[in-house]
Amino acid sequence: MEPDQLAPHVEEIARALGDKLSVDEIANELTKYVEVYRLSLPMAKRTIVKKYGGDASSFQAGFQRKLAELRPNEPVVDFVAKVLSANDKEITAKGEKKRIIFGFIGDDSTTLPYTVWDTEGVELSKGEVISVRGAYTREYQGRVQVNFGNRVSIKKEDPSTIGDIQIAQGPPRVADIGQLKEAMGYVEVKGRILAIEPREVTVQGEAKKIFSGVVADQTGKIQFTSWSDFKLKQGEVVRISRATVKGWKGIPQLSFDDRAEVTKVKEKFPSVEELQKTGLKMISEVASRGGASDVSLKGVLLEVREGSGLIMRCPECNRALQKGMCKLHGRVDGTPDLRIKAILDDGSGAVSVVMNRSLTEKLLDTTLDESMQKAKEKMNFDIVRDMMDERLTLKIVTVSGSVTADQYGLSMIAKEADLATQDAREEAEKLLVELEGSE
């Protein structure tokens, strides 16, 4: 977002925080939470105020946003938009007939579908510009849908406020899979199907068969959901047009239904084996997308975090114990395990990485039994954590897995991990110099 767009929100946070942060510090924090961590503006503002001990009660009930800024499942959204279409329909809900209005609304950022569920006193016409307070959003097949309930307030505005807008049903945006991120509108991608399987889900009380899988090109992989049976098969190359991109914990996912165009492509394309090899990405690139599925990151392990080393897990739920206690099952006899929780930095950004027992044993060149024996001999469980600090801090590591995002930043549960073979400190310095030189 541009600075002038953030300015009123920065001022609102400043009022809630008092003198705890400067305006510049608030602007930097807000930009990070919105653009890097991919939080909605309301959540970003609440997170910052809570983090620095401010008073969020002074916040306004809502504020006007662009339609492209809206995210699924927001309880309150305010905006100004043009009515692009308005259709009346009678439906049966809970055994009773009721009238709804549905169609598309738009502004200069995007267009979205809407439904008015409480139509008493509401009349909408194509071409009207309306300011809306108290609407809410839901997700339908990967796209944000705006809903007007019984708490909504609708006010007619000057029609010239918003110029001509076309419903976003024109040519989809052609993109590489590695470029896909949430709220891109309709997209067209070409890729090879790496995996696909049918699933049964319940939609509005009815069972529906859908198809989930992974599609990839030279730039990356993405999980997809097809809501119609296009007879897709593992290994074939397809062009998918008029799909949408949604996010799950920051990971982009492709979604398409019977409105999409899916065609088989017969041309030279990387094999399944080549595409299965995850491509090396910069952390900043992953952050700009809000997360990624099945990628590799290479960087310096800056810190081995608290919670690493020898841990004990609950035999019932597998949670890590705290002082012999499980949050769910109380005091239990724990099962020993090994774990690494670390911060990986490649000079462009940082990600929190969690590595399981097998990866920990691989990086430390030891086993759980050997670690337990050392801890018993020294009568100190922290000896394994100390060994991690000594052997891994400032080492170059390549990790692979899916990167998710939340209010705390980027995180990965690694599926693979490898230490660099050459002198780690020398390679780390070389890597950071190269990164600085590329800026």
Features of the shown structure:
single chain; 439 residues; alpha+beta; OB fold (Dihydrolipoamide Acetyltransferase, E2P); 5-stranded mixed barrel; 9 helices; 24 strands; 22% helix; globular; disordered C terminus
Low-confidence sequence ranges? 435-439
Q: Give the biggest sheet.
A: 5 strands, mixed, barrel
Q: What class, by secondary structure content?
A: alpha+beta
Distance between the termini: 21 Å
Strand content: 35-45%
CATH architecture of the largest domain: Beta Barrel
Query: What best-fitting shape do the alpha-carbon axes yield?
Result: globular
Helix content: 10-25%
Please identify the top-level CATH class of the largest domain. Mainly Beta
Global Rg: 25 Å
The CATH homologous superfamily of the largest domain: Nucleic acid-binding proteins
Q: Count of DSSP E strands?
A: 24
Q: What is the averaged pLDDT score?
A: 84
Count of DSSP H/I helices: 9
**Largest beta sheet: what is the strand line-up?**
1-3-4-6-5
Number of domains: 3
- Which fold name fills CATH's third level, the topology of the largest domain? OB fold (Dihydrolipoamide Acetyltransferase, E2P)
Structural summary, described in words:
- By secondary structure, the chain is α+β, with helices and mostly antiparallel strands.
- It has three domains: 81-138 and 147-165, Beta Barrel (OB fold (Dihydrolipoamide Acetyltransferase, E2P)); 173-275, OB fold (Dihydrolipoamide Acetyltransferase, E2P); 281-437, Nucleic acid-binding proteins (OB fold (Dihydrolipoamide Acetyltransferase, E2P)).
- The protein has nine helices and 24 strands.
- The strands form four sheets. It has a five-stranded mixed barrel. Strands 9-10-11-13-12 form a five-stranded mixed β-barrel.
- Strand 3 (96-106) and strand 4 form a beta hairpin.
- The radius of gyration is 25 Å and the shape is globular.
- The chain starts with a helix and ends with a helix.
